[in-house]
Structure formats: C-alpha cells, structure tokens
Amino acid sequence: MGSVLNVIKIGGNVIDDEDQLQSFLEKFAALQGKKILVHGGGKVATRTAADLGIEAKMIDGRRVTDAAMLDIVTMVYAGLTNKKIVSSLQKFGCDALGLSGADGDTIKAVKRPVREVDYGYVGDILVDSVNTLSIKKFLEAGFTPVFSAITHNGLGQLLNTNADTIASSLAVSLSKIYDTRLIYCFEKDGVLSDVNDDKSIIKTIKADDFELLKSSGVIYEGMIPKLENAFHAIGKGVKNVYIGNALNLHLYQQGEFGTCLLAK
Amino acid sequence: MGSVLNVIKIGGNVIDDEDQLQSFLEKFAALQGKKILVHGGGKVATRTAADLGIEAKMIDGRRVTDAAMLDIVTMVYAGLTNKKIVSSLQKFGCDALGLSGADGDTIKAVKRPVREVDYGYVGDILVDSVNTLSIKKFLEAGFTPVFSAITHNGLGQLLNTNADTIASSLAVSLSKIYDTRLIYCFEKDGVLSDVNDDKSIIKTIKADDFELLKSSGVIYEGMIPKLENAFHAIGKGVKNVYIGNALNLHLYQQGEFGTCLLAK
C-alpha cells in the first residue's frame, strides 16, 4: 500500500462564514502529507440566483438544476467559492489546484435519469467515474486538488453533483492507490451519544456497533444516511472515516478528531 | 531548445457566440503538440453584473474592478466561461485543465498601484510572475492548461488581469523552456494592408518593417498596441507571433494562418 491520503469534505455552513472558513483552511493547509479538499457551495448560489430573479427549486431536499441554475452553480461553486479557497490555501503555503470534474477529466458523471422527478442537470457518479490516473498525477506532482461539486459527462455537459458523494467516491477510488482516509467536517464535534450534550462524542464506531446504535435509537435520524455512506466507503476500501468539527481539524493528526468509523 | 509550445489567446467576441466558440475549440483541440489556451471574458460578465444591479465602470477602456465586480469576473471568467470551455475541449478529446493564476500558484500578480486612477482589484504581471515550473508539470503530464484572466497576489487576494497580457507573459516566460509561439485570435483574418479589404492580409511582418508600416500609416490605430506587444514578446524570446482569425486556426499547422510576426 502506498502513502497516506486524506480526503476532506467541508460543508456549506463553514463556507458561508468567512472567519470560520479562513480558520479551517489554515488548519487544512497545515495538515501533513497528501490531501484533497472537496467543498460544497453554501448559500451564495441560492442568494445569487435570487438576486438574478431565479428561484431555487428543491425536491426532497435536493436542488433541481435547470439550465439557468446550472450556470449559477458553475459560476459560484467552480468559480467564486473554489478560487477564493484556492487563493487562501496558497496564502497558507498549500499548493492548491482548483478542479471541477471536467478539469483533467477527473470526474465523469452521468445525467440522472428522469423517473418520477426530473432533477435536471444533476450528475450521478458511477463506479468508474473517478479518473485516478489523472488525480494521481496532480498528487505526485505536489499539488493539493480542491474539488468543487461540478462534474461533466465527457460530452461537453457540466453537471451539478453532490459534494458528499464526490468526497466518498474519490476516497473509494483512490484507496486502490493510497492508504486513504475520509474526513467529513460538519458543525458538530462528532457523533453524539446524547443529542442534547455536545460533549457526548462517541470516539469510535465499528460497523457491527452501528447496527446496534441505530436500532437502539442512539443515532438520530439526520446522522443515519451520513454514517451509512461512511460505512459503505469503508466496505469499499477506505481505511477509516472521521466525522467531526471543521474547526478542530488541527486535532486530527493527534488522533483527537471527532468520531472515527472503523470496519471492525 | 525543447519541444514546441503554442500559446493561444481567444477573445471575447468568439466566446460570446456559442457556434463560433465550439468551432474554434474543435480546431484548438485538433492542434498537435503542447498548447495553452488563454481566454478573455466576453460580455457575460457585464451582463451578469447588470442583472445583479452592479454597473460596469470603465476608465480609458479598462474595467474598474471593485470588490463586487471582482466577485462577478471570478464567477464568470474562472467559473462559467472556463468550465464550459474545458468541458467542450474534453468532448473534443483534449485533456484540458482550467486554471486561474491561483491554481498551482501559476501566475502571481501585484495589485496595480493607485496613481491618478484606482483600478481596484486589477493585477499587473511582473517579470517573474509566471511559475514556469508549475505549468511545465501540467504540460509534461499531458494536460492542456486553459487560463482565465484571474490571477492572485499570493496573499489570498484574487486579481482581475488582462488576458492579452497573460498570454504574452506566459509565452515569454515559457520560451525559456519551450520553442514558444504566441497566437492572437481575433475577428479579422490577419493584419491588413488595406483596412477596407479583408483579403489584403500581410503574410509576414519583420520588426524593421513594422516601424515603416507604422510611420507610413498602413497599420491602423487599434492594431498598433497589439503589434507592439507582439514584437515585445519576440524581443523577449518568443519565436514567432501570429495574428489571425479564430475560425481559421485549422490552417495554422499548414503555415497558412493570418499574419506572422518575425524578429528579422
């Protein structure tokens, strides 16, 4: 097995707060070794759309991406947010390289098939979507890829794609080359055993324990899909998955970051 | 001297016309060997700004870039326009990699000093602005860099930068490594000896002839700064500079493209 690779996902709530974002990026830049950042979009896309008189349409918590909205998320995610993050990381001494899935053909998705709902220009990631050869070239040349949540279909069509899925797909695919860990940064310090007590962080969860915690109701509803995705990634070759607070990322290399999910 | 590198600048008028842009990109993708594309922004930035209620301010034909306008040009140039070009090039089989100057720290500019006019967040390129090592890594790995006209100052500040200047600075700096040619694509077939006759293309202009053509009034006003920049690049190591029609790029490798500027 090759060297360690950390794939880190940062969510919209941190991106929307300039001070928190800078604090997180400084910690990310300080992280040793090979790493990839995947970022969501935050509220800027919705706000920009509203300012342009375009209404954000959601179905079951998912954005419907018509042609006008695709232009906006491409502008905001791959343009403004991505380049602000990249220039900040450069300031902190990290040689960041901002990417959409079209750049270097790194992530090729397929437009989601229309069934009951037409989600528009939304990309679904397939098992061979990630171009590990291309990404390996960037990593080995010393660059830190920073992915926005925009992919392409290889036929000239850009696609809006879920950032959590991009992060886990990158981690799974790159685990064939690197000793890969996946880190989801969010607004809590980890998975809590008591939802009302922010200090009640569960330090580790094994795959077997997860079923128990789920059936006993300890893990609350919103957390379940996140953890299911995480254990799926572990089942596909990712070494560990961590879930914790973006602003605690400096504790990661001391083994003190959030909740660690393990195979067994 | 190493292998040949073609640095090609495409202007706003082609970018604004989807059919022309696709036709140009197909020809660019078919060009053999190492190449770099530099693109301007077109009218989308001005239109997007207007739709958002922000007025584009110009002084002496140059855009004044306040903080709000910087966000817009970053969104449009580095986001929408760049990613559309990259995904189209991928469709045509060219492994394009979209870049701002912040990505891989490829171009570090300085904010233009305020003298009579405050141009705002506008970047001036210095003699050592281009990170040839970083760009060489991309070229040698088989990628085709596609630069938008956004750079950074290395301290976390993005800067709006003239695309013509980016193209000539890239060509001059990379001429230390590659046998570099600079190609300016615009809406005419070349430099004309009769401004009213589109067929009167001057095939070659040597540096000595340029002074003569200028003093005799053959070369019209708008063309003079473009040619002066071109001869400056030749003086700094660029092998040849070509000026011609974007839609004729397929003729370039047959030696039939536009006007060729030579040292002597």
TrEMBL record, chains A, B:
InterPro entries: AceGlu_kinase-like_sf (IPR036393), AcgluKinase_fam (IPR004662), ArgB (IPR037528), Asp/Glu/Uridylate_kinase (IPR001048). The record marks 9, 226 as: Transition state stabilizer. The keyword Cytoplasm applies. Its EC number is 2.7.2.8. Substrate binds at residues 41-42, 63, 160. It is found in: Cytoplasm. It is an enzyme of class 2 (transferase). One of its GO terms (molecular function) is kinase activity. Pathway: Amino-acid biosynthesis; L-arginine biosynthesis; N(2)-acetyl-L-ornithine from L-glutamate: step 2/4. Residues 6-245 form the Aspartate/glutamate/uridylate kinase domain. It holds the Pfam family AA_kinase. Keywords: Amino-acid biosynthesis, Arginine biosynthesis, ATP-binding, Cytoplasm, Kinase, Nucleotide-binding, Transferase. Signal peptide: none annotated. Catalyzes the ATP-dependent phosphorylation of N-acetyl-L-glutamate. NCBIfam families: argB (TIGR00761). Belongs to the acetylglutamate kinase family. ArgB subfamily. This is Acetylglutamate kinase.
